[in-house]
Amino acid sequence: MDARRESEPTSMKNCTMVERKSERELIVTRTFNGPARIVFEAWTKPELLKRWWAPKSTGVSLLSCEADVRVGGRYRFEFGHEASKPMAFFGRYIEVTPHSRLIWTNEESDDGAVTTVTFEEKDGKTLLVMHELYPSKEALDGAVAGMEGGMPETFAQLDELLVTLGASMARS
Amino acid sequence: MVQYTRTRFDASFAALSDATRRGVLEQLGRADASITDLAEKFHMTLTGMKKHVGVLEQAGLVTTEKVGRVRTCRLGLRKLTEEAAWIERYRQLWNARFDELDKVVEELKRKEKVDGRKKRE
After folding, report:
1. Which ipTM did the prediction report?
2. Using one digit for the tens of pLDDT, what is the confidence trace for A74-118?
3. B45, B86: one domain
4. What is the number of structural domains in chain B?
5. H or E stretch at A125
6. What residues in chain A have their Cβ under 8 A from chain B's Cβ atoms?
7. What residue numbers bound the domain in which B56 lies?
8. Cα separation, B75 vs B68, whole angstroms
9. What's the CATH superfamily of A17-135?
10. Which residues have C-beta within 8 Å of that of residue A109, sequence separation ≥ 6?
11. B37 and B60 inside one domain
């Protein structure tokens, strides 16, 4: 991990932090160099959301992005490597408080999180806190395992360990 | 150090050499479980399962925690490192998104300034 460069003014580059706050909660925080109304706008206008939700470095492109940002309104983002097999991310907004709070559900499965994003302005900057609450510990664990490719990887590691151990046994 | 590594390797190897214990690891990979759950799942006595879990624990492959009368077993260190790695990847994803969002925010700020100037003129 990069050492923090003291010479760089902190206003130049803000850092993103992720913390597993509890068995069911994940928190993402980041400060933006702009007022809350602007940051909020970028989260609530589909044409703006589209521009940052699927950055090139992630290797996936956003195929469509619909977001009806009002209480009860739905969102649906489709993305993927191939247009024929899109992955969809969808749900409903359950709270929309201009410039300060957004809450949405995720309805892809019963294990989907409820996400609360708060925008807190101070001295022209905005502290953004994204809080994801999963229905159970297993759901968050599953999200963690899912992104990893889950168990097969764990077992590949176990297999590797076995081979290493086997080899060291044979040598002795 | 050599002796320690050797002992540790032997412990891990011994732990993994048994089919039941590999099954237990597979099971704990899906979800944490109590010794009672595991004993039932593998049709064993509680004492038998306790011994297996003890061996896995000795090898650092499983950790256990007693809450009330129930001893819960979970995968050991390996699971913790996986979670840390996932959190770092998740952080990178959001960081990449937020770097793009920074650009959008900058652009909106500039636009607001220009529009404000126009209004005043």
Report:
1. 0.76
2. 999 987 766 677 788 899 999 999 999 999 999 988 889 999 999
3. no
4. 2
5. strand A125-133
6. 14-20, 26, 28, 30, 32-34, 38-39, 41-42, 48, 51-55, 57-58, 130, 138, 141, 144, 147-148, 151, 153-155, 157-158, 161-162, 165-166, 168-169
7. 2-75
8. 20
9. START domain (3.30.530.20)
10. none
11. yes
